[in-house]
């Protein structure tokens, strides 16, 4: 997990090449982790120039491994990476086709944003280039076994520690058995992946004021072969898949929404389920989700787990303070909205960065995900925002968002306790 945290930190700093190496090392340790394939897909997309073909391949693996686990959330994240890869590669029709499968995404705002982006691009294409492309919702690729994936991933790291792109481009599967049994091994793997494979293991989680409980509904798990790694900011679990003991089932959360107290957390393996009880480092803190978006920052400013300090449970970018609102959709995270709306836009000229979407976008905001961006507001707004304190920024974002862009206030004491209604002119 340290490799994954290192990769996330490097990606956040704009070092896609370094992040790629770290995520590959993380995958060597856990070769069936959807999370790590999703992270690595982002790294491939942010190389200069972007390797969207390899980003797409990792996104497809993420979907299939998530499908094995029955993780709808990870499947959606993998689908988003496919949309981004097709979009950045100029294959807008393919991206649009994928979006037709994704209208029921949990993140409706992300779906709407990418639908609008793709439709806008398609409008600029001549009719001769608007070709209907058949893209399946479930990728039609052969999923490697854990051993096959690990063997292939190891070849992608050179002896000097650099990344081997040529090895990553290869689709060759290394057989689990000796060469004589290669055909049988591949056939077995293919059959395994086209027949809904292992038993789908349902997942659930709930929280109290002091704990977060994660449940995996797996029957007959062998306690002797069960592995669990709980850290302050992450969780990794693996065990032989009950539906196919020759394959491994793994479950990971990296990072958590907030840090946990490892010494007070525990795992119970029952006959019909696995129960992970995580004790919150900060009691009564409500977790918005089980998994966070960025690596948790420790008290010394580093990213990772394994430290005792819990003075700050979550960095501001992780969840952001939630403030009162009368919105029907619940409380909103104005810090996150600020990051989304003040992202630096792409240049108008046809630069390389504009073509591959991997260079300048969001460079003024290291927390901004450049390949999942949004529309930016005008320069005046951004300059005013950049020079303001935290309360002023929140007031600006809340007033701008709730009023539909018709009002802008810098007084948090005034707008923080009530909804800002859209401005109505006398002529309306």
TrEMBL record:
Residues 333-355, 415-428 have a biased composition (Basic and acidic residues). It comes from Cyphellophora europaea (strain CBS 101466). Residues 356-375 have a biased composition (Acidic residues). Residues 322-428 form the SGS domain. Gene3D superfamilies: 2.60.40.790, Tetratricopeptide repeat domain. Belongs to the SGT1 family. The lineage of its organism: Eukaryota, Fungi, Dikarya, Ascomycota, Pezizomycotina. This is SGT1 and CS domain-containing protein. SUPFAM superfamilies: HSP20-like chaperones, TPR-like. It comes from the Eukaryota. InterPro entries: CS_dom (IPR007052), HSP20-like_chaperone (IPR008978), SGS_dom (IPR007699), Sgt1-like (IPR044563), TPR-like_helical_dom_sf (IPR011990). Residues 198-291 form the CS domain. GO terms for molecular function: protein-folding chaperone binding. Residues 170-193, 285-378, 403-428 are annotated as: Disordered. It holds the Pfam family CS. Residues 296-314 have a biased composition (Polar residues). PROSITE patterns: CS, SGS.
């Amino acid at each position: 997990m340290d490799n994954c945290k290192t990769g996330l930190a490097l990606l956040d700093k704009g070092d896609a090449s370094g992040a790629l190496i770290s995520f590959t090392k993380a995958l060597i340790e856990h070769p069936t982790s959807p999370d790590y394939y999703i992270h690595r897909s982002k790294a491939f997309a942010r190389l200069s120039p972007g390797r969207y073909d390899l980003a797409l391949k990792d996104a497809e693996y993420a979907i299939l491994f998530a499908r094995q686990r029955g993780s709808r959330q990870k499947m959606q994240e993998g689908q988003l990476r496919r949309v981004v890869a097709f979009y950045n590669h100029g294959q807008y029709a393919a991206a649009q086709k994928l979006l037709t499968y994704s209208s029921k995404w949990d993140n409706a705002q992300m779906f709407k944003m990418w639908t609008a982006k793709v439709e806008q691009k398609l409008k600029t294409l001549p009719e001769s280039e608007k070709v209907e492309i058949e893209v399946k919702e479930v990728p039609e690729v052969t999923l490697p076994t854990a051993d096959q994936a690990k063997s292939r991933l190891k070849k992608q790291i050179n002896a000097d520690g650099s990344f081997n792109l040529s090895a990553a481009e290869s689709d060759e599967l290394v057989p689990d058995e000796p060469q004589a049994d290669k055909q049988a091994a591949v056939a077995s793997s293919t059959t395994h992946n086209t027949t809904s494979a292992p038993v789908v293991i349902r997942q659930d989680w709930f929280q109290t004021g002091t704990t977060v409980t994660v449940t995996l509904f797996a029957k007959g798990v062998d306690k002797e072969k069960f592995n669990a790694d709980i850290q302050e900011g992450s969780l990794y679990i693996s065990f032989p898949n009950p539906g196919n003991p020759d394959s491994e089932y793994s479950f990971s959360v990296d990072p958590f929404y907030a840090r946990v107290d490892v010494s007070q957390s525990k795992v119970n393996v029952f006959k019909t389920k696995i129960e992970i009880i995580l004790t919150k480092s900060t009691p009564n803190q409500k977790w918005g989700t089980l998994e966070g978006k960025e690596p948790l920052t420790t008290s010394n400013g580093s990213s990772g787990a394994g430290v005792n300090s819990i003075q700050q449970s979550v960095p501001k970018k992780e969840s952001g303070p939630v403030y009162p609102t009368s919105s029907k959709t619940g409380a909103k995270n104005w810090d996150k909205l600020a990051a989304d709306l003040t992202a630096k836009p792409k240049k108008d000229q046809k630069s390389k960065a504009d073509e591959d979407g991997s260079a300048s976008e969001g460079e003024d905001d290291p927390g901004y995900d450049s390949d999942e961006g949004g529309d930016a507001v005008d320069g005046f707004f951004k300059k005013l925002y950049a020079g303001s304190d935290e309360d002023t920024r929140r007031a600006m974002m809340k007033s701008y968002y709730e009023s539909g862009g018709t009002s802008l206030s810098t007084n948090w004491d005034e707008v923080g306790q009530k909804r800002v209604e859209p401005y109505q002119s006398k002529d309306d």
